[in-house]
Design a protein that fits this description.
The complex is a heterodimer of chains A (about 220) and B (about 220). Chain A contains 10 helices and no strands. With about 220 residues, chain A is mainly alpha-helical. In chain A, helix 4 packs parallel to helix 7. By secondary structure, chain B is mainly alpha-helical. The chains are: A mainly alpha (about 220), B mainly alpha (about 220).
């Protein structure tokens, strides 16, 4: 009885710390957010952070992993379902792009601010060397499935080509995830960061064509 | 900066900029202290303070130095392409090549300093923290690119051209961030430092994407 209460208490503490960390890391970046600020926001003792997460770096990686699992699962589900619908299991580029980007946009479109914070973090982690390793371990199994799908969808392309094309997809998506105010400044207010639906449509159109007709676009 | 005067030792100011650039690129702005920068270029803290004032101002100068050179090259490429165009318009491919070409070229031929800069710029563009600095150094070239992609007789294309520009920036950030992720992903079959090959693959990708966004491809 007492033990299960402790477990519940532990889970609650973990989740409080993870939420606070996600918010502050997104706001200030990994280096800019201190553990002290995180414990203040979470209203927990530093000893508990050490107990549950050992180090700041490990805490950051657990923050990344928590929602990465959800995104990975949804992406692979969509890709598998698309593959199940075709006879030769070569799905079209449109389905690959949809499986890759739509789970992310579905999350951004909800009013859950946690996902928006997470998106910023993901953008940073993708670009910074020291986080890209651990992030790669979380995302690469799904990434390889996407590279394979690209290879099957475009049999005429050189095999190595699909890896860079996958990274290009990541890059274009990162720009949306980073949600910097540059979009509004450059468009003089014509485009809004919060217009995730518009961004989704544009990114999809961009990626589908970039991946499909680049062989004869000369 | 590099080239002509190569026999001259770099000035203290340039030496500080080079070392700061390397350290900021490796560890991020917050991961580096002025003390570390001072040690790595063997100067007194007073020298850094004398030339740059604060860490933030030093960071700004690091970014400014090569950004100016890069954007001059880009403007020159736009000017040259426009001089040869009878219509005063450029194809999407010509715009993209003028925008990203100098970046690849400097990364390939500019030495370690430029490679550090490209990596640093990748992190900086994606962070919300340095948005104003990026705008200060890059909005001018960004607006020229956007205008060339959406000429005045097509004002409704402007917001699409803004998105196109930003997608290009995101893709460039992934290419030059030196994370090694691609190498692991492809199990070594494709090395991310093969810049010539990346350029050859990236340009048609970007052209395809930008043309679709601007509604220039019938099949899209």
């Amino acid at each position: 009885m007492a033990r299960s209460r402790n477990n519940r208490q532990g889970l609650l503490t973990r989740s409080k710390i993870l939420r606070a960390a996600e918010k502050l890391f997104a706001l200030r970046g990994y280096d800019g957010a201190s553990l002290r600020e995180i414990i203040n926001l979470a209203k927990v003792d530093l000893a508990l952070v050490n107990y549950h997460f050992r180090s700041k770096e490990n805490l950051f990686h657990e923050v990344l992993a928590r929602r990465a699992e959800v995104i990975n699962r949804e992406r692979l589900d969509l890709l598998n379902r698309a593959q199940g619908r075709t006879a030769q299991d070569a799905v079209c580029v449109e389905s690959i792009v949809d499986a890759f980007v739509s789970p992310v946009f579905d999350k951004l479109a909800t009013t859950n601010v946690g996902w928006r914070n997470y998106a910023r973090l993901l953008a940073e982690a993708n670009i910074v060397q020291r986080h890209a390793g651990p992030l790669g371990e979380m995302l690469n199994p799904a990434a390889i499935a996407f590279c394979d799908a690209l290879a099957k969808a475009r049999p005429k392309q050189a095999p190595a080509r699909h890896y860079w094309d996958y990274m290009f997809m990541v890059g274009a998506l990162m720009q949306v995830l980073a949600q910097t105010e540059r979009l509004e400044r450059l468009s003089k207010g014509l485009c809004r960061i919060q217009d995730y639906r518009g961004a989704h449509i544009e990114l999809r159109r961009f990626l589908v064509n970039a991946l499909s007709c680049d062989q004869d676009a000369t | 900066m590099e080239g002509g005067l190569s026999s001259m030792p770099p000035s203290t100011r340039d030496r500080i900029l080079d070392q700061a650039e390397k350290l900021f690129a490796d560890k991020g702005y917050h991961g580096v202290s002025l003390r570390e920068i001072m040690k790595s270029c063997d100067v007194q803290l007073a020298a850094i303070a004398y030339y740059f004032g604060t860490k933030e101002k030093l960071f700004r100068e690091v970014l400014k130095r090569r950004s100016s050179e890069l954007n001059q090259m880009r403007h020159a490429r736009f000017d040259a392409a426009l001089a040869e165009s009878p219509t005063g318009r450029l194809s999407e491919r010509a715009v993209i090549e003028a925008l990203v070409g100098p970046f690849f070229e400097r990364n390939l031929n500019g030495g370690a300093g430029w490679r550090n800069f490209c990596s640093l710029l990748s992190h900086t563009t994606i962070s919300s923290e340095w948005g104003e600095l990026i705008s200060e150094f890059y909005d001018d070239i960004a607006q020229r690119t956007i205008t060339l992609l959406s000429p005045t007789d097509e004002p409704d294309k402007r917001d699409k051209a803004v998105s196109a520009y930003l997608f290009i920036v995101g893709i460039m950030a992934v290419i030059f961030s030196r994370t090694g992720r691609l190498d692991r992903l492809s199990a070594g079959s494709y090395e991310s430092n093969d810049i010539t090959r990346v350029y050859a693959d990236a340009v048609p990708f970007l052209v395809g994407g930008v043309r679709a966004l601007l509604g220039r491809d019938e099949q899209a």
